[in-house]
Amino acid sequence: MAEPLNVINTKEMEKEDKLRKVRNNLKDVKNIFVVMSGKGGVGKSTVSAALAAGLAARGNYVGLADCDMHGPSIPMIFGLEGAEPDVEDGMLVPVTPVPSLKLMSIAFLLPDRDQPVIWRGPAKMGAIKQFFEDVAWGNLDYLIVDLPPGTGDEPLSVLQQVPGIDGAFIVTIPQDVALASVRKSLSFLNKMEVRPLGIIDNMDGLVCPHCHETIDVFGSSGVEKASQDFSVPILAKLPLDPSFSKAEESGKIIEWMMADSPWKKAFDDVLDEAERLGAEKKDRSRRTDQQKSMKRCRNGRNGTRISHEMPLVFLRCTYCRNRFRIL
Ligand SMILES: Nc1ncnc2c1ncn2[C@@H]1O[C@H](COP(=O)(O)OP(=O)(O)OP(=O)(O)O)[C@@H](O)[C@H]1O
Ligand SMILES: [Mg+2]
Hints:
Elements: H1 10-25, E1 29-36, H2 44-57, E2 62-66, H3 74-77, E3 87-88, E4 91-92, E5 95-98, E6 101-105, H4 121-133, E7 140-146, H5 153-161, E8 167-172, H6 176-192, E9 196-201, E10 206-207, E11 214-215, H7 223-230, E12 234-237, H8 242-249, H9 253-258, H10 262-293, E13 305-306, E14 314-316, E15 323-325
Parallel strand pairs: 1-7, 1-8, 2-6, 2-7, 8-9, 9-12
Antiparallel strand pairs: 3-4, 5-6, 10-11, 13-14, 14-15
The structure holds adenosine-5'-triphosphate (ATP) and magnesium ion (MG).
The site of adenosine-5'-triphosphate (ATP) has 21 residues, from helix 2 and helix 8.
């Protein structure tokens, strides 16, 4: 009898082929978080930079990919305008303001930062792809991706071209127009099957430069309503702090993240959540590894299970009862 023909989904295969190079380049990156907003100027780059600098200050290895092709601001925030990445073995080497932090931005690759970049769609998508294929990110605990504003081609291209995104932080400000865009961002993430990790309400209240108390500027926002409607938590409400803006403009974000301020105190909740998600994923993959190693019983039989007495170090075979070490 003739064998049934295997049906091969060529579209899926092509897609998988395109992703393979990126997947391979990012194989040692443990967590990938994107930072997005449906509206420009609400503080995405600020949050991305603070997330990267704050996680690095807590002892993690962090990468930050500035995917804004038209208004890249990450080099300025880190005081690295004019820095140029090296090329080694055909790969771009990210710029490192401190050893545990790697940055890449289109601004590092442009000869003249005062000239606007005029991209045609495919060239722009190609450049975004190169950020994940041809940059030597190496071993990282976290890769933070600063997305351009909106829900158009560029954010779409990143979400489609980077496999294994662990989730998205959504940045907003307490204004109705910004909140409408939060709802749009959440629907966009839903369609792209990327997990929304939480909303960050930026510029919520103004820190008085004299007494350091917080003044309510915009009044209450609908961010709570969006959070309830989509079941996505509000991770932090960050005050508008003029001294923070100054620190950013003079490239002193790392120093800012090491000092105490109401902004930093509020932002610690975002850093805690990022680390909690990282730890949760590590725990999940350790359990998967344990399940895989269940097949490694000395007697060659499957069906071993984790011993309850010594959970992380030993397995006991359900059949022969032999105990063997897995860590
Ligand atoms: N909480 C804050 N307090 C004071 N200034 C802030 C705060 N958040 C952001 N800013 C300032 O607001 C401006 C816009 O922030 P940022 O560049 O991070 O926004 P963005 O969403 O990345 O913008 P774009 O859509 O253009 O990429 C910057 O000058 C930044 O310093
Ligand atoms: Mg930006």
